[in-house]
Every structure is written in C-alpha cells, then in structure tokens.
C-alpha cells in the first residue's frame, strides 16, 4: 500500500457545483473527503474559485479525471499534464485517478470509449500510464469502467486489467457499481471478478447508482440511489481488500444533502462492520490460513 492510499480513509462524496452551497453549510462530519474532476476546476478563479478553495481547506481532496484519454492513439496532452500537476500540488491531492478507457482522438467525444482487450492495447496503454506517472511524479490509479460492447477482445476484461496494472505498475480505482453493471450486461460472475483483483493495488473505491434499461441491460448513470446488489458487492469488496476509502458518485438527479448523507452513513456502517469482522479472532485465523 502506497502512502497516498493509506492516508485516504472513510466515506467521500463527488463534488458537483450544485453541492457547493449544501457542503458549505454542512458540518465537517458530513463527509471524510471530496472528489472532483480536475478539468472542471483548473483555472477557475473569482468567487467560484474561492468557494471551491474553502471546501478543499475543510476536507481532503482526490481527483478523478475525465480527459486524459489514456487508451487513445493520439499523443498524450502534456500541456494538460503540466497544468494538472500544478493543480494536484496546489490542493495537496493524495490520489489522482482516471478511467481505463479513452475519450477521443485529436478531440473529445465526451464519452468513455472501451479499449480493445488485446495484448497490443495493454502495451500501448501501459506505456502511456508510465509516461503520465513520470510527468506527474506520482503513481496514478485507473478505474475499471463500464462498457457495453467488447471490441476485438482477445482476453477477458479481468485479464486485461491485471496486465495493465502489472505492466504499468499503477494502482486501481475499484468501481464496485461498474463490476455489477458489466456482470449483468456481459453475463459473468461479479464476485469471482472482484476476488481476482489484487488487493495491494486498490487505491480507493467508487460506488454509485444506475438505470435498469432491461433485465439484461444496465446503464451506468450515477443518477440514482445505490441498489441492494451493489451494497452487497461493496461488503464483499471490504471482505477481500479491507474497508478501503469509498466515494459516493452522484452526477445528476442530485437529491437533498440529507439523502446523500444517508448513503454516506451506509458506507461508513459497512466499513465499521468490515473492520469489526477483521478484528474477530476467527477472521484473523481465516486470513492466516
């Protein structure tokens, strides 16, 4: 576990501009950390910048990027990386993560596109991740993403992720909801997938809601409450990897702060239960065996 991973604990919330006011009025116990897309805040000044800075002074901040486009064929945007590095240092951000996907080629598609599960793609993506880590001077985490059509797959999704983590020597942002979504859409065992991931790579965890288009098709929207199967999978993640810091994502249909806090408290309750289970003698014996 890296120092950045160990410094991040508890239950966090994705910061949207609609939450600036509610969070400013909330107590410091409302959340344990915040997450933002740095692209939305780099260079923002004036009153909005001051309000943002006030929140980052109250809570630890992690960054989850949208435009790195790590799987794209076009060259990395190193001008953006320089701006990003300054932003991460200014706000003392312990963890920066991105999506294991791409969002364009010499331009942005404003969507996250799936990378082909091939050995060639592993080598391409891993080299780009290593370059990003060199420029930023830190390890980064890549998120397992939801996808709807596998493209030119020569290996499984799990094997692809494992090879990228190994060859890039980076961390994993574990999105529990995405595992559930993909397991339904692509008909695989979510628990077996989860247990195949390396514990030492998990930087932190995402959890979110989704939309059921059909019994065999889920759309990852971040626009609804977390559902029971995803909460259950989060419990299993904690059993596998420990009570990692966990971020609640809510991108639209944002409810009152009281409703968000209810889900944050549910994360905290799951973390406490996992910690208690780990502390029991029988749990320690199982781990040692």
Structure, explained:
The chain is α/β, with parallel strands linked by helices. The protein has one domain: Divalent-metal-dependent TIM barrel enzymes (TIM Barrel, Alpha-Beta Barrel), CATH 3.20.20.150. It has 11 helices and 10 strands. α2 links the parallel β1 and β2. The protein is globular. The two termini are 22 Å apart. The C terminus is likely disordered.
In terms of per-residue confidence, which ranges show pLDDT below 50 for 5 or more consecutive residues?
284-289
Number of domains: 1
DSSP, total strands: 10
Mean pLDDT level: 91
The outline comes out as globular
Work out the helicity level: 40-55%
CATH superfamily label: Divalent-metal-dependent TIM barrel enzymes
User: What CATH architecture label applies?
Assistant: Alpha-Beta Barrel
Structural class by SSE content: alpha/beta
């Amino acid at each position: 576990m890296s120092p950045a991973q160990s410094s991040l604990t508890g239950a966090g919330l994705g910061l949207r501009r609609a939450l600036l006011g509610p969070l400013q009025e909330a107590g410091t116990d409302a959340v344990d950390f915040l997450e933002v897309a740095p692209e939305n805040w780099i260079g923002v000044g004036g009153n909005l910048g001051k309000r943002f800075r006030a929140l980052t002074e109250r809570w630890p901040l992690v960054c989850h990027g949208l435009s790195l486009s790590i799987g794209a064929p076009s060259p990395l945007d190193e001008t953006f990386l320089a701006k990003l590095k300054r932003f991460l240092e200014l706000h003392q951000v312990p963890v920066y993560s991105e999506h294991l996907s791409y969002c364009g080629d010499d331009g942005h598609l404003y969507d996250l596109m799936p990378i082909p599960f091939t050995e060639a793609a592993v080598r391409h993506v891993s080299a780009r991740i290593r370059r990003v880590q060199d420029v930023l001077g830190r390890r980064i985490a890549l998120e397992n993403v939801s996808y709807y059509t596998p493209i030119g797959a020569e290996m499984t999704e799990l094997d692809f992720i494992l090879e990228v983590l190994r060859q890039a020597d980076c961390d994993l942002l574990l999105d529990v909801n995405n595992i559930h979504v993909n397991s339904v859409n692509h008909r695989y065992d979510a628990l077996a997938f989860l247990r195949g991931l390396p514990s030492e790579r998990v930087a932190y965890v995402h959890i979110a809601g989704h939309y059921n288009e059909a019994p065999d098709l889920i759309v990852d929207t971040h626009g609804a409450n977390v559902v029971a199967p995803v909460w259950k999978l989060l419990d299993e993640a904690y059993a596998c990897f420990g009570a990692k810091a966990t971020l609640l994502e809510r991108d639209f249909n944002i409810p009152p702060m009281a409703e968000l806090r209810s889900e944050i408290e549910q994360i905290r309750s799951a973390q406490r239960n996992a910690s208690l289970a780990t502390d029991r003698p029988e749990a320690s014996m199982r781990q040692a065996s």
